[in-house]
Amino acid sequence: MELQAVLMAAGGGSRMPDLTYNTPKPMLPVGNKPLMWYPLNLLERVGFEEVIVITTKEVHKMMSTDPKMKDVKMKLDVVCIQEDGDMGTADALRHIQQKIKTDVLVVSCDLITDVALHEVVDLFRAHNATLAMLMSKAHEFTDTVPGQKGKKKTAEQRDFVGVDQSGKRLLFMANEADLEDGLSIRKSIMRKHPRMHIKTGLEDAHLYCLKKAVVDFLADNKSISSIRGELVPYLVRKQFSKTTNSPKIKDDAEDQNQKTIDGSTNHGQDEPLLQLAQERSCWNDHRGDMSEAYHGGKLRCYVHIIDQGLCYRVNTLAAYIEANRLAPKLFEEPAVHPSAVISERCQMGSDSIIGALCQVADKTSIKRSTIGNSTTVKEKVKVTNSIIMHGVTIEEGCNIQGCVICSNAVIGRGADLKYCLVGSGQQIEPEESSATRLSSLIE
Amino acid sequence: MADSGVTDGLCDTDDIERSKTEGKELTKEEKQRLRKEKKHQKKIKEKKDDAASHEDEKKKKKKKEEKPVGAASQPPTQPSQKVAPAPAPVPVPASETPALADKPAKSKADLKAERRARQESERASKQGKKGDVGQPVPTSKPKAPPSELQPVVKRLPEHVQVDNPDVLKKLAKKLERQQIPLRSDYGYKVSLFSHLHQYSRKAPLTQQLGIPSTVIHPAIVRLGLQYSQGIVAGSNARSVALLHAFKQVIRDYTTPPNEELSRDLVNKLKPYISFLNQCRPLSASMGNAIKYIKKEISNIPSQCKEEEAKSKLLSCIECYINEKIILAAKAIAKYSIEKISDGDVILVYGCSSLVNHILCEAFEKKRKFRVIVVDSRPRLEGREALRRLVQRGISCTYVLISAVSYILPEVSKVFLGAHALLANGYVMSRVGTSQIALVAKAFNVPVLVCCETYKFCERVQTDSFVSNELDDPDELIVTRKGKTQLEHWQEVPSLGLLNLVYDVTPPDFVDLVITDLGMIPCTSVPVVLRVKNVDQ
């Protein structure tokens, strides 16, 4: 067996609390499919037959009832963890260490992408890498997000990513928050890779190929709790650390850790043969200095950066809205679900989606919107640029523009909502106008 | 004069008799023909009822019947037997009586001829149904139609018949059966090399494989990727990596129930070998290593337990690598060091692991020499050789192949590595090697080729066209000062990019081949092969 897939679906969605306080993030509907369906579909398309899903009990319950999840033909091995516990992604991996028999492919549940996964895995295979990850050019979300006054400033911390000349080898990774004075790069890196490209406009897709030795290393090191936040920068740093250190206790511990990562290839007893093959091969990954391929380093981290194509992480409201708009383009599915009842005098734009068992009455206009399952839309309603989740009732004469309406809400007659976010199960009174509450959050 | 007259006279009588007999034969022949035509017309009527295959047979028969009437070298049917002894003086009446007697006999003869012809045609059609490449034609005649004349040839390997759609179809079917994706050719191929595969590095075979590869062992997938991306390059490195991957395959192998390890394991290896072949055509050294492994596997006795068999195979592989690669390199280094004297200027081409090893060993034995490394695009492997030699402390010069005739007056010896040594003494090596050997010959500089015996191959080749490897043509594109001139080469209809990998050097340019068996001339390669085969 080559790779085992692990889907991390226990995240809280802390950056979009308005959407997730009722529905857990993995089950948020995007294009009328639960969010976690997208990475599962990606894995299925590529050829995986089994996935280990780490999630909470609540999500597990919702998964079993959701019809779309039944479409997933892979065997899902669901591991439930405590929802309140502060379990990071690395902690979750440590939790399932017994199940991991080979190298792992860790995917986050909020990744929607159409990347050719073999590009990442090929880097992992060909260079016998310890870590291979996927990054994409960050997207600027230009649409106005409901519930926010004015343009949101990018208060998000930037990531500084350093790659070598080929653009594949990962040399440096740090978050702006960790850099107090400035960016400092070790001399050993500069000596080995004199040309480094440092990029800031990249977004991590949270898709990692990790060697089994790394999972074993995590089991020994309980201090690492997040893959992205701690493990990846640690591995990137360790590529260039010297193996012989001054005899301090801390360094010894680190040395041992390094040895466990370095020394355990799949079959340690064939190491001399691999070494012989590499010696006899006339290939080098760099030129200009006297060292052999990979500078003799055993620990290697690679990154595949995509600049074209779809790659979104749905962890903010803006991303959620954008994903809803673009996700349906990934699949060739009919825009209107066959079980929906739509009257003939409804004007529906071509980029709208209507879910199952919907009822759309006459003289409605639906443009650039997503309407969830079992929603009722009465007459003379105008829905533009909005996302309407499941079970919503929209009474007559409403005008909804740029809104996100969560499940089971009721919008009263004649309401006029612009750029609002209506929480789950809320009721909007008739003749309510968002003008009275400028782009507000209705809860 | 008299003699000639006598002979003339004799000749005259001969001629007369000959003409008489021939005349009679002609008449005989005419009669035969008439009879045959009648029969043929009857048969045609019958044929119209029968299927077309019968027609073919009858046609063949007819032709076979006509043939004895025609040329001299004929199958021994009755009429020709009559023709052959006819030039000998035959008494006229004797010939008449046989002629008379022959008339009823000839009908028998005709029947026999027909029967024989029918048998032969049936035999031929049976062999045709077997679908073999060649039909052994026992009566191979230049007059016979070309469809019947398919001489027995050894099957051409698939990888040099890419422009034949039937061969491609067969390959596609075979790969489908083994569940391996077919890699499609890329770009315009120069017409002289259109019979070879040309793949793109940017379209790896793993695109079409599922990611947790279940059909193919992950070690083999990794190996295939490393081959196609050039991470493992050089025939020694490729063989060692291949054997390493096979070791992992054997370790992870479990015999399915009701199967024998000796047969099943070989069948398991076949799709892996096809996969590796698709990633990059196998080298001669890899081919020999695979033959060795397959032989070892099939020689495992059936009583052997699985664990024991596996450990035996693993030790065989280690033994092979140790003997044929590591120890052979040591032996070759020992022989070569005798040939390197102090003050030598040695020219090497590209990056041959063996030649580098030799030079490093010679340097350790305190020989004083300097090295000139010749390099060529697009691979620029010489840079890696340069790095390895300079790292040891050997003083080197670096030139491109275009400067080789400039630098050769300084050179005292040329050491070349080989990818394979062919059975007719030709050396197959990186493209450019034959150029170096040619120029060295012109300058009277001795050329020494270093090659282990496991790279000796039974193929015979005299030119670099028939069997070669085409690398990705995009590798030839270079960007200088931000400009890529050949970026849109595919859009220019009259432009083709050719990136050859190998070429063959004739034995006249090679002065000595240094192998682990000793120093032999190039023409002794078939002897070594024969000895090797006898040993095995």
From TrEMBL, chain A:
Compartment list: Cytoplasm, Cytosol
Domain Nucleotidyl transferase stretches: 5-137
GO cellular component: cytosol; eukaryotic translation initiation factor 2B complex
Bias-annotated ranges (Polar residues): 258-267
Cited Pfam families: LbH_EIF2B, NTP_transferase
GO biological process assignments: cytoplasmic translational initiation
Gene3D superfamilies: Hexapeptide repeat proteins (2.160.10.10), Spore Coat Polysaccharide Biosynthesis Protein SpsA, Chain A (3.90.550.10)
One Gene Ontology molecular-function label: translation initiation factor activity
PANTHER family per record: TRANSLATION INITIATION FACTOR EIF-2B SUBUNIT GAMMA
Quaternary state and interactors: Component of the translation initiation factor 2B (eIF2B) complex which is a heterodecamer of two sets of five different subunits: alpha, beta, gamma, delta and epsilon. Subunits alpha, beta and delta comprise a regulatory subcomplex and subunits epsilon and gamma comprise a catalytic subcomplex. Within the complex, the hexameric regulatory complex resides at the center, with the two heterodimeric catalytic subcomplexes bound on opposite sides.
Family: Belongs to the eIF-2B gamma/epsilon subunits family.
Protein name: Translation initiation factor eIF2B subunit gamma
Protein species of origin: Cyclopterus lumpus
Organism phylogeny: Eukaryota, Metazoa, Chordata, Craniata, Vertebrata
Name of the gene encoding the protein in the UniProt record: eif2b3
TrEMBL record, chain B:
Organism (species): Cyclopterus lumpus
Protein's UniProt name: Translation initiation factor eIF2B subunit delta
Pfam families on file: IF-2B (PF01008)
InterPro entries: IF-2B-related (IPR000649), IF_2B-like_C (IPR042529), NagB/RpiA_transferase-like (IPR037171)
Main function: Acts as a component of the translation initiation factor 2B (eIF2B) complex, which catalyzes the exchange of GDP for GTP on eukaryotic initiation factor 2 (eIF2) gamma subunit. Its guanine nucleotide exchange factor activity is repressed when bound to eIF2 complex phosphorylated on the alpha subunit, thereby limiting the amount of methionyl-initiator methionine tRNA available to the ribosome and consequently global translation is repressed.
Compositionally biased spans, kind Basic and acidic residues: 16-32, 46-58, 103-132
Subcellular locations according to the entry: Cytoplasm, Cytosol
Keyword list, A-Z: Cytoplasm, Initiation factor, Protein biosynthesis
Keyword Iron: no
Gene Ontology CC terms, in alphabetical order: cytosol; eukaryotic translation initiation factor 2B complex
One MF term in the entry's GO annotations: translation initiation factor activity
Origin superkingdom: Eukaryota
Biased composition (Basic residues): 33-45
One GO-annotated biological process of the protein: animal organ development
Subunit structure: Component of the translation initiation factor 2B (eIF2B) complex which is a heterodecamer of two sets of five different subunits: alpha, beta, gamma, delta and epsilon. Subunits alpha, beta and delta comprise a regulatory subcomplex and subunits epsilon and gamma comprise a catalytic subcomplex. Within the complex, the hexameric regulatory complex resides at the center, with the two heterodimeric catalytic subcomplexes bound on opposite sides.
Region of interest (Disordered), residue spans: 1-150
Family: Belongs to the eIF-2B alpha/beta/delta subunits family.
